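Q: I'm writing a short methods note and want an example of a predicted protein-small molecule complex. Could you take the sequence and the SMILES for flavin-adenine dinucleotide and return the bound structure as tokens? Please keep the output block clean; save any remarks for afterwards.
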Amino acid sequence: MSPAHPRRIAVVGGGVSGLALAAALPRTAEVVLHEAQPERAGAGWTLVLGPWVRPALHRLGVLDAVVRAGTPVGPGRLLALDGRPLTPAHDAHLLAVPRPALLAALGGALGPSVRVVHDEVLDPAALDGDLVVGADGVRSRVRALVDPAGAERLVTPWVALRGRLGTTPAREDVGEYWGPGMLAGVVPSPGGGYWFTTHRSALGPEPLDVPEVLAEARRAATGAAPVVRALLDDASGATATRLWVAPPLRRYVRDRYVVLGDAAHAMTPNLGRGAGEGLLDAVTLADHLAGHRSLVTWQVRRLPRTRVARAASSAVMRLALLGPGHALRDRALRLSLGAAGPRAGRR
Ligand SMILES: Cc1cc2nc3c(=O)[nH]c(=O)nc-3n(C[C@H](O)[C@H](O)[C@H](O)COP(=O)(O)OP(=O)(O)OC[C@H]3O[C@@H](n4cnc5c(N)ncnc54)[C@H](O)[C@@H]3O)c2cc1C
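A: Understood, no commentary inside the block.
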């Protein structure tokens, strides 16, 4: 069997991308999915998914379950950090879904030909299989087999804090707050609301001490809108994460190795596209394999789009956190995004 007509497929990683691929692959393939940390399926925060992800969820047979488990974000807007609206409220039809619920839905869609093994793959080159797929996240081991120059993940200067709100945020507070020095977001989510902030930090890189990161964030939020200061003041249960990205790869496919999801294109989270692009990678790859189309054709379809998303989310991060000069940025944003609303304008 060749990688283009694989009968036995090894998938490394059972996050969003790996589970979606295993669920979408033709039932004629024998699939072994390796997951090193199965307990992570119950962990993680809310993921905001754009409407462009729905066809992939439908193809996987999980759209209804995911919609039921999520909360529509509804109208939101882009605001300056101090709370001045930069755009009118706009409904971009985003869905806020807890990561555990998304993983549970994908796990429930696995067919009988998928065997899930709880182990850490130390040497993906030693795996059996006509095809070995790296869905192993930003620290991917499979990536080195696809593009040795892109083996190592890249550290960014930014850290993210994420937390829950016990109550649904007020409509006028929903949206993204842009700098100087901090990016913050507030959305409704099942059980209340979800918030995140990002700022530049020299701490770490890892592990991060949450109280230290919170203290930094509170300093960066001096002068921020009351809702942003309030969520940082009452941040019990918040987690802090250093943001890492994948290096820009020249390829996602080599011989019998393929990478997808964060393994291929982990990006800063500004555009809320990481998980969605992983889902799209998975269903398009499965469809290419089912149609006996070449893996290179799949790469031609997915690599340019995800490279642009990766670069754009980094550019948005820089723009959002802009220091001096942000007033000029805010004026330009009002002019360019005024009619369309935040997410639509940045897509
Ligand atoms: C702060 C923040 C906010 C975000 N917000 C959003 C958002 O709103 N919307 C959105 O779409 N995306 C968002 N993302 C991005 C999203 O979380 C990721 O893009 C997505 O979860 C990647 O899924 P994945 O399956 O590709 O990788 P991962 O979730 O990293 O899964 C990889 C899996 O592989 C396993 N693994 C790794 N190595 C091995 C090995 N050697 N052997 C066996 N198993 C292994 C790991 O245990 C893990 O379960 C955000 C990210 C961050 C950091």
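A: Remarks, as requested: The chain has twelve helices and 15 strands. Residues 212 and 233 are 13 Å apart (CA to CA).
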